[in-house]
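re: ur question from yesterday

yeah so i grabbed the chain u mentioned. its 128 aa long if i counted rite. heres the sequnce exactly as i have it in my notes:
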Amino acid sequence: QVQLVESGGGLVQDGGSLRLSCAASGRTFSTHAMGWFRQAPGKEREFVAAIKWIYGSTYYADSVKGRFTISRDNAKNTLYLQMNSLKPDDTAVYYCAASATSYSGGYYYRREVGYDYWGQGTQVTVSS
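ran it thru and got these structure tokens back, copy pasting raw so excuse formatting
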């Protein structure tokens, strides 16, 4: 089992920045990739970004490309999401996820089905 705890959410103005963190514990050696998803009120959860844990390959949703940066600190077992130029449309609960499966490419890491463990989420609110 892998436990995931997100932090760093909050209220920010349009155009502002936030950095989310996700601390992983437990069987972290089994992690092949981690990702961020988000769910806005009344909408389905959607992919934001993912990173392969060893090689560092990254994947982004088109809506955040160029504004968000995913990174990880292997020594600290921590995942980050630096979010810049935030917009009201970015308002959502952000979830961290971990995958125990090695997939080729990013197809499954862009989808919920590719992940085995999930955090509880952290709220991000962008005011206009």
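noticed a couple things. The mean pLDDT is 96. also Residues 71 and 80 are 5 Å apart (CA to CA).
anyway ttyl
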